[in-house]
Amino acid sequence: MGDAILVVSELLSNAIKYARPLHGARVRVSWAVHEETLEVAIADGGGPTRPHQIKHSVSAPGGRGLDIVERLSRGWGVHDDEQGTTVWAVLPAAASGNLQRRPRRSPARAQARPSAG
Predict the structure, then answer these.
(1) Strand 75-81's sheet: what is its strand order?
(2) Which of 32, 36, 44, 63 could serve as 15's disulfide partner, Cβ 3.0–4.6 Å?
(3) What integer pLDDT is reported at residue 59 of this predicted model?
(4) Residue range 76-110, pLDDT digits in tens
(5) SS3 of 36, please?
(6) For residue 38, what are the contacts with CB-CB under 8 A and spacing of at least 6?
(7) Domains in the chain, ordered, with CATH?
(8) Which DSSP symbol is given to 15?
(9) Left if phi > 0, otherwise alpha if psi is -120 to 50, otherwise beta: which for 35?
C-alpha cells in the first residue's frame, strides 16, 4: 500500500501546487481496485501547463514527483475535459498491499478497555 500512498501524495501535491481547483474549490481523489491493479486518479481544474515527466538531476530541489509516479506505476497519463485535468496512474495490486475489504470492528471492540487500577 505504500507505493499507492506515495503516488497519490505526489499527484495530489502537484495538483495543489500547479493547478486551479475544480468548481467549488475542490480537488478530487479517486481509486478503483481491479483484480490485479489499483488505479488512482487526481482531478483538478487544470493549470497553465500540462503534467509531463521531465528528467531531473538527483540534486534538483524538486520536480521528481512524476519520475516517482513513473517508476512505481505500470503506467500513468493525463486526461483533459471541460471540467479540468485528471492525472491517473495504474499500480500492481500486489505492490499496493492487501486491497480486500476488511471487516469493520464492532463499536464495542473499538472502545478503550478500562484500566486495572
Answers:
(1) 28-33, 37-44, 84-92, 75-81
(2) 44
(3) 53
(4) 999 999 999 999 999 998 755 544 544 334 344 33
(5) coil
(6) 4, 31, 32, 90, 91, 92, 93, 96, 99
(7) 2-99 (3.30.565.10)
(8) H
(9) alpha
Provide the pLDDT for residue 55: 57
pLDDT digits (tens, 9 = 90+) for 28-80: 999 999 999 999 999 999 998 887 755 554 555 556 789 999 999 999 999 99
3-state percent helix, strand, coil for the chain, nearest multiple of 5: 25, 25, 45
Q: How far apart are CA 47 and CA 70, in angstroms?
A: 21
Look up residue 104 and give its three cell numbers.
Answer: 469493520
Q: Phi and psi dihedrals of 79, rounded to 5?
A: -125, 125
